[in-house]
């Protein structure tokens, strides 16, 4: 467990000018310039621009481009853009929205919100969106209700309840002062946290931050929260912190003091201070996605740089990927609790 630990209140990490980034606003402007220039170098411009269409750079694209480039390149048009709503994706959005609604209503005037019952809060949100759908996830869930897709609704409700319970478990109750839930539909902070280089660049960098602790101020004395219902390995955690530090800086225009990454299943959290090295690491992840989009248009799937790992177990292109299948058939590999025969 790194600085920030699992006890005490999460703090933004930079207090009263004591920080690792001397000028959070100037550094953010420089980062925007650097990332924009690197994207243009890769994509070209004017008549030389690569025919890549829109380039959506979110965490899952960055993860695929880093972990196994052919997996990202194989995504095609459906995998390169916003992946569209699914039960797991909608569950996180529903958990955020249910929490935001709980925080803003229902209590007697002036009374602080009570500790939410996660299942009751999610049920209340679902009842609300059925008649007044708000936000992308809200509209998608309302459509599933209209279609009587009970299995999907049950999966969303279960995931959202777990998300909300884990969030409160990790951050404590009452929540830290000045916490704003992000990406929660029609509430304050509901607008997507995204950045685009100056047009006509086709790139959109999308932050996956779930919340912000502290107001956005020029000193950068605030933190972004990345809540994960389950933990993960150290390398992935560092990459996630780097990507989200960079994406949030690009979108907000101020370098946050820290990124708070959580794991709802264990109740752990780690506060990662944001410094220039972390921002550069995040910029490399963003630029790698743009680079792989160009490679995909020039060379297609091309498995030459395939990087097999446990991810192969649920890779959509496993059936056509020799390196992945060989790796999974190797000694000591297990699938679903059974050895591969
Ligand atoms: S099967 Fe494995 S090695 Fe092949 S593309 Fe998928 S993740 Fe990469």
Plain-language structure description:
This protein has 341 residues and is α+β, with helices and mostly antiparallel strands. Among the domains are: 87-175, no CATH class; 308-339, no CATH class. The protein has eleven helices and ten strands. The strands form three sheets. Strands 2-5-6-7-8 form a five-stranded mixed beta sheet, sandwiched between helices. Strand 9 (334-335) and strand 10 form a beta hairpin. Helix 1 (24-43) runs parallel beside helix 10. The longest helix has 24 residues, at 276-299. It is globular and about 60 Å long. It starts with 23 loop residues before the first helix and ends with a strand. The model is unreliable at 1-19 (pLDDT under 50). It binds iron/sulfur cluster (SF4). Iron/sulfur cluster binds next to helix 3 and helix 11.
What small molecules does the structure contain?
A: iron/sulfur cluster
Provide the succession of SSEs.
HEHHHHHHHEEEEEHEEHHEE
Secondary-structure class: alpha+beta
Helical segment count: 11
Q: Determine the N-to-C terminus distance.
A: 39 Å
Shape, principal axes of CA atoms: globular
Number of strands: 10
In short:
The chain is built from eleven helices and ten strands.
What are the main properties of this structure?
binds iron/sulfur cluster, 341 residues, 5-stranded mixed beta sheet, disordered N terminus, 3-stranded mixed beta sheet, 10 strands, alpha+beta
Secondary structure elements and pairings:
Blueprint: H1 24-43, E1 55-57, H2 59-67, H3 69-73, H4 76-80, H5 87-104, H6 118-131, H7 135-146, H8 150-171, E2 179-181, E3 194-195, E4 203-206, E5 211-213, E6 223-228, H9 234-252, E7 258-263, E8 268-273, H10 276-299, H11 322-328, E9 334-335, E10 338-339
Parallel strand pairs: 1-4, 6-7
Antiparallel strand pairs: 2-5, 3-4, 5-6, 7-8, 9-10
The structure holds iron/sulfur cluster.
